[in-house]
């Protein structure tokens, strides 16, 4: 980690605390962090640790406390100091651990408040003892010229043995500045002395060590009252009150002794010159009272501490837990051949190593191992060792199974990440041109394959990231055609299962100065040449204001010509297409792409703006722009006004005393402003592109903590040119830091482990570059600090800077050659480098004028506005914004300046050196978060020629990269150092059963190693030390054992699954049997109910036929009685007709059979009507009884009502037909009445389909009365028989309903599916039957009408007609009184009127029935049964007969009810299907 150095300490020297200490619980929280109780893993002792984080802003306080604790903690009243540790943590931030003595008795404030809560107060003797011990500790500090300055009850801690300790020395050594922010945050102002407060308020005040005496007096009051004075006020209010109020006293002084009050009064004298010191207070009477009583008071104090802890929270214990990643380096290595691993050479020296590398390089074996480090020699030509076949070869393979390869490093890092759930870091180092960038490409390629991206789009995006960023960040230099001019740290994001889900790039230290100037033989960034050639090829140069004949100034070079070298360059055109494709694939929009091109074109055009001096009368330092057209082109591309751009370039504003003064710029100043604008636009554009790439490749996970990272560092290599400037200095400092990081991992920490663990290993000497890093980075006398200091002086020059370096940098690594004014040399780890300081100050300042910032903010281009509006980070990059679109930023309105432009960079002006320092810190903080893997790239020659191996060049690189020392320490040392607990947890399965829990001891670890048959390992006090090849062997054994276990588990799971499956099959079979049983029972019950229902229907039909037969018999008997009374009259009539011719007699004889047929027809009609009405009555009554017992929702609306309405509608339509339809119906009726069988079919049809089923019984009896009303006796007799039949039927129906309540439901369920199929057929049958029934009456009326006409014409035929009519039962209403022709005419008219009355009565019956249905629907209730009223009905019929036939009014005022629900339809089918089934059965012959 980058060393945070103060005046005398370097934090990076401190060891990792997690190797020694384990956090148990939190004790409290301080200003800069928390205090924890920790456990020593070695001896089991406990201590307290103060964790300070982050450490970068408080290094002065840390250094002060560290120095005091280190020097003064040997006193009995000062807390003991166990050491300082430094923990590197990328996620939580670096932490500094101060491990102190555990004072588990709490503070004296806790003790005093605890006693007050119990209604007690501390005894004065105990208070005196505490104050005496605190004075002894302060005396020790003051003698050593140290002021505590933060004395208070919470900083006086107690041990369980009664010890009293002073703690918290964070501000102790700072005698000129009190950290009010820090004191305020912990409440310290209540204890501050008046002179300290006065100094804080910047008054002319000083103070000495007696400020601690005041604080001790306030602490004495706190011990008595529980709280300091003014504690009820805000701390800031207290700071105001303390200097102005009189000295505070106890809350109730009378309750305390005079000595105690006097002690407090002496301590709280406001004039510190009159205040006694610590030695004086030790002689005070109140303090001296404890002399000789120390042991007794100490015991009493111990008792009070115990009592206070019993009331409070008891101490918690927990098992040992390891919090370290060291020792968990699970890399797969083993013994290798001599040619593959330099660490296995028997004799190690420079010549041997060089020869091995040269021999392998000659065979195109460019990769070589040095232990676990890979050396890669640049071949300078394409090689066929990166094909998909090689990719598959190195996936999960054993290291010795294949030759050394860069893919093996990727596989090791990936397997380590997945196996141990830890982040990894691959550091690629080497000088410029050694092949670092290409190695990074190959690593990304292999890791993408290993990560198995969920989609090829993501994989393609990640692979294209490097190409896109390198187009903007790489350039051609003297020694490398594709040199990285920035630092790149690519983090590939993985899930815990190892699937790649995204990527993130961090870019550092972009060489922006290359935009405006390139050294001889070098070029600008690649993208400028790509875009020029690409736009020229697409004929778009004019659109972006670029010339096709003149080379832009920023691209000018003595060796470069616009035509052949740029515009006509095929490679540049191809690269432009590739870059544009990268933009599109990664996710950039066309709008964003156009903005990028416009910005780049504006930068190129701005370099062509020329300035000239403008002379005036008063001043000659003004400047003007000589080529306005170029200025307008730049303004057009940036979407700003050209006049405002000209003003911003040639003048600047200065605000003095509230007034704005505009001062002109000289030509030199205007050129600086122009170049600063170009550099700033390019640098911020590069940062914006990186941020957009990160947002488009960000993984869709709820939190980044759930994933794992593999970081790949590709940074500019060490550079040494003929002329080295500020850029080379920064690059080489970064490489020094990378080398220090390498040394720490490979040498320093490893050898420290050997000493701490008492492992016998020979020490390896190596070149430590720590002093060189201190030369560059130390504060305040480091080179970068001096550069920043000189940059802040307006009159500072490069010459004064070099002189300041010479005066302050007194080390062997720095020298200044003679006769070189601006030159100085640095002896780097890679060799000596001579730097030229010309331009150092200007490059370090890198100021972007506020006028340019304000102008660019007014741009109409979204991207340009964004580049100057978003703030910069501490590393100098554009701050990342949320969202993935270009419109995610809220752009300020034009003309509105919400804040000063300088705030866009930082609250104070930052220099390039400060950005560089923070960039190094950020970069290394990312690196130390993961387990490192090193790839050392070697450049075989400076000519970039293939198959050329320069031994001297390679040897120099081997020396400064420490390859030889690395090989030695890898051969002699132990690269893997694993804690006992981790080692046993990881490998115990090799020697113990899975259910065993072996003890964490050396013996257990040794047993595992002996079981694995390993040699040359070492055992430390807390860790196992292994060679780098041991770990691979152990991992392979664990992998094999795990695979065997997995195989066994698979078989067991298979057996358990098969057994479970068989059990499920048995359960299914049993369940099937139960279901079948239930189903069979249900079907049997359903069939039984159907049989019972059929029996009931058969009984009903038999009863109906019997009653019909009985009724007909009774009717015939009544007719016979009437005929006997009229027989005499007939004889008289016959005698009168004897005189007529024989022909008339024959006609009469022929017509007599016709009259008899008509009589039979009328009798049949009467029987049909009787049966039909009775069946309707029976069905209605049965339905009412079922409705009372059934709870089905389908019976809520009577379905038979709906059926009646539909039938009635059919009848209504047929009745309203014309005479032609009636004739057709009559013909059809004649065909149906040919024989008695067809009559029965008509009866059945009439019964099942046509018969209206009114719910009012009265209407049914009306129809009956119409048929049999020729004699009252017959009507009464039929009525009585009907009643008897109805009573019997009701009894039978009630009994059946009591036995089977769900008959209807079962039938409904059975016929529900058949309802739709028979619906159409039923409607056709209904229509036919309705026509037959309605037109029987019409036929009779037609016949009678014809007979009437015949009687009028032929009087002789009237007598014949009377013979035919007399037998009919319809004309026997009145006896015949005269045989004359007039009598027959009157009688015939009467019969005709009677038939009309019958037809009209049937129509009125239908109308009454419809009205009744409407009443039922409106009221929703069933109409109760009514008794027969024959007399009223007969009188009504007589009235109807007397009236003339009138046209019938509409039967309904509303639409008929339709069957809209399945339940209605189902029940409708139920009623009529049962009757239809009966119709299909053959009818018994009566």
From TrEMBL:
Domain Protein kinase: 21-287
EC number: 2.7.11.1
InterPro entries (alphabetical): IQ_motif_EF-hand-BS (IPR000048), Kinase-like_dom_sf (IPR011009), Kinesin_motor_dom_sf (IPR036961), Myosin-III_kinase_activity (IPR052409), Myosin_head_motor_dom-like (IPR001609), MYSc_Myo3 (IPR036083), P-loop_NTPase (IPR027417), Prot_kinase_dom (IPR000719)
Chain segments annotated as coiled-coil in the UniProt record: 1305-1361
GO cellular component, one term: myosin complex
Region (Actin-binding), start-end ranges: 920-942
Catalytic activity: L-seryl-[protein] + ATP = O-phospho-L-seryl-[protein] + ADP + H(+); L-threonyl-[protein] + ATP = O-phospho-L-threonyl-[protein] + ADP + H(+)
PROSITE patterns: IQ (PS50096), MYOSIN_MOTOR (PS51456), PROTEIN_KINASE_ATP (PS00107), PROTEIN_KINASE_DOM (PS50011)
Domain of life: Eukaryota
Ranges where the record places region Disordered: 876-903, 1124-1167, 1181-1300
Keyword annotations of the record: Actin-binding, ATP-binding, Cell projection, Coiled coil, Cytoplasm, Cytoskeleton, Hearing, Kinase, Motor protein, Myosin, Nucleotide-binding, Repeat, Sensory transduction, Serine/threonine-protein kinase, Transferase, Vision
Keyword match Aminoacyl-tRNA synthetase: no
Official protein name in the record: non-specific serine/threonine protein kinase
Native source species: Lates calcarifer (Barramundi)
